[in-house]
Amino acid sequence: MQFLDDSLHPENQDKVVITVAPYGPEWMPADFPEDIPVTMEEQVQKAVDCYEAGATVLHLHVREPDGSGSKRLSKFNELIAGVREAVPDMIIQVGGSISFAPEGDGEAAKWLSDDTRHMLAELTPKPDQVTVAINTVQMNIMEVMERQCIEGTSLAGPAYYAAYSEMTVPAGPAWVEEHLKRLQAANIQPHFQLTGLHSLETLERLVRRGVYRGPLNLTWVGIGGGFDGPNPINAMEFVRRAPDGACVTLESLMRNVLPINMMAMAMGLHPRCGIEDTIVDQSGRRMTSVAQIRQLVRIAEELGREVANGREAREIYRIGVQYKDAEETLRMNGMAPNRAPGQKNVPLRAA
What we know:
It is built from twelve helices and ten strands. The protein has 351 residues and is α/β, with parallel strands linked by helices. It has a single domain, classed as Alpha-Beta Barrel (TIM Barrel). The strands form two sheets. The chain has an eight-stranded parallel β-barrel with strand order 1-2-3-4-7-8-9-10, surrounded by eight helices. Strands 5-6 form a two-stranded antiparallel ribbon. The radius of gyration is 19 Å and the shape is globular.
């Protein structure tokens, strides 16, 4: 992305789109009972509370009545319907893993099968977005976890610690292409969760081949353990390489969340918060999803950036928009066109 001399001035930046991930599938309800919703009514109310606090994108996972992460599409349909009725302007973004919590002590933390994840394109009512990973990678969320921050939680137990250390994200080429095909056919927007430049480069190749034809909503996920680490240089290089027309959110883990979010908002990008990312503040104290949203709203106000409402967030994300071919997709996302036969150097973008 290009930055001009006045790009850090708030009047030249989009309004802030706050994504919240308040369902925290890696935690058990006993880890933070004050803030982990379990019943369907509580899960819908959590979305309402987050929206009223200032979040306009809901990263959605679902729990069963016993508090375990749900893998039933019917439960997702139920929660989506409830949220849609309660806060119709909120962007509903289904976590593409569905739920990666292990089934029991000592079991691996696995994402659902390729076929099951493809069925996210058939959810009813449709979500606005489904998150999509690019390229299979390790997802060891424990690598940068501080022991004092998870002390007393389920993640501190040896079995869960091992399970979440060995987790991988299955996102191979055949699955990605088929998944994008199905989501686009259902007019569900992919939100790309990218683990580093290798994923961004693969996504660009998919665009240039016409596999994906739509707006580029990207989240850089700096959590280490096979993804980029929460190093500002990693984030800055990702931002530098992202297309000019992309909408970029930065995401990190635990006490890295707030500094990364502050960087994002200062640069005109967008933040993500919620207990899926951190259950503690900078002092290690428990911090609810709503408190995290309110903190970001305060910081946005200090920076002079207004917080987007639901309608404005939909415009920024270009929800519902698709393009006819690769060339239109490249142009609308501010990317150089594909090379014409015999063309030298990098093709220039049209003025």
